[in-house]
Design brief:
With about 350 residues, the protein is of the alpha/beta class. It contains nine helices and 17 strands.
Length: about 350
């Protein structure tokens, strides 16, 4: 498959720069795989669109303040460090991370940074240059844990297509209401639409809920740099599927009830742990599963998702589940109806 065949035209003004004034006010496009029908609804109507006994599976990962701003030493020029993946802890106050840094051409091996505020800095030193602008970086503090220092000094890692600085409100809105397990550098954005009231309405309608964890890393959003889709290699991301979630999914599968994944990260996790008979096995691990058209879905029978970047692994996953023609028709419909796109945008459910 050619990557160019998964493109669409999007007016820049439809890229959401802010969340809706109130969580849960997003539009919801309903795509029916059997008929190809598209229907415009609002997200608060989700409980009305599902069946009693459906099982929704959520990703409960929590975004941390992975974007650190500061200055280069010596000289004081501005610098930025996006923590991507922790490699090892060398002491209670020091860790080694894989990171993206800016300005990359100036930050060679041995370069030192002071990140955050001068009153509570996070120190960093570049240890090694790696592929695609990555760096191996040692970070440390002068007291207290790295986790606490990063949370104090860091910024919400909003995606680059949001052309503004992060605001204090993003600490809440770029996080699902059910986020629990710290470890992601990006939100599982399909979950941003849910409110406590919507979750309660799902419960009242007899729709079941379970959770898993997949920490969203750079792999979910890394650009596809090859012309042929099959040549792309996903980076591994770590997941944890609890025993109680596996049991709930297996009961639903055995009873012929729908398993609906909230987001592409949940979908990748479930399909990674699926067995040949459509059941799943509990456990923790890492997945580099790249879902493209032709993938035979074993567990997931419904998908709630946002609208994604053209030529991205996320759009390829949606195309694999919905079918390429229906997926691109839904995106064209979204543009025509002025849906809001990407992380802070509107949602789609494919059934």
């Amino acid at each position: 498959m050619r990557l160019i065949d998964f493109s669409f035209d999007l007016p820049p003004e439809l890229i959401a720069q802010e969340p809706t004034p109130e969580r849960g006010q997003s539009l919801l496009l309903v795509a029916d795989r059997a008929t190809g029908r598209l229907e415009d609804r609002v997200f608060t109507e989700l409980p009305l669109l599902l069946r009693r006994g459906d099982l929704l599976v959520f990703n409960n990962t929590r975004v941390f303040a992975a974007r650190l701003l500061g200055r280069r030493l010596p000289g004081g020029g501005t610098a930025e460090c996006l923590l991507v993946r922790r490699l090892e802890a060398t002491s209670p106050t020091a860790e080694i991370w894989e990171a993206l840094v800016h300005p990359g051409q100036r930050l060679k091996e041995g370069s030192r940074l002071e990140l955050g505020s001068s009153s509570c800095p996070v120190h960093a030193q570049i240890l090694e240059r790696r592929f695609h602008g990555r760096r191996r970086v040692r970070i440390w503090t002068e007291g207290g844990s790295i986790e606490e220092a990063v949370d104090r000094a860091g910024h919400v890692p909003l995606p680059p297509y949001i052309k503004r600085a992060d605001a204090p409100t993003d600490r809440d809105r770029y996080q699902t209401v059910y986020a629990r397990e710290r470890g992601s550098i990006a939100a599982p954005t399909a979950g941003l639409h849910f409110t406590p009231q919507i979750l309660a309405a799902l419960d009242a309608a007899g729709i079941q809920r379970s959770v898993l964890t997949l920490h969203v890393g750079y792999g979910t959003f890394q650009p596809i740099r090859v012309e042929q889709v099959e040549d792309h290699q996903m980076e591994p991301e770590h997941y944890d599927l609890p025993a109680e979630t596996a049991a709930a999914i297996n009961r639903a599968v055995d009873e012929g009830r729908r398993v609906i994944a909230v987001g592409t990260t949940t979908t990748r996790t479930l399909e990674s742990v699926a067995t040949a008979n459509g059941r799943v096995e509990a456990g923790a691990g890492a997945t580099d599963l790249f879902i493209v058209p032709g993938h035979q879905f074993r567990v997931v029978s419904g998908l709630i998702t946002n609208f994604h970047l053209p030529q991205s692994s996320l759009l390829l996953l949606v195309s694999a589940f919905a079918g390429r023609d229906l997926a691109l028709a839904a995106y064209r419909h979204g543009v025509e109806k002025r849906y809001r796109f990407y992380s802070y945008g509107d949602a789609m459910i494919v059934l």
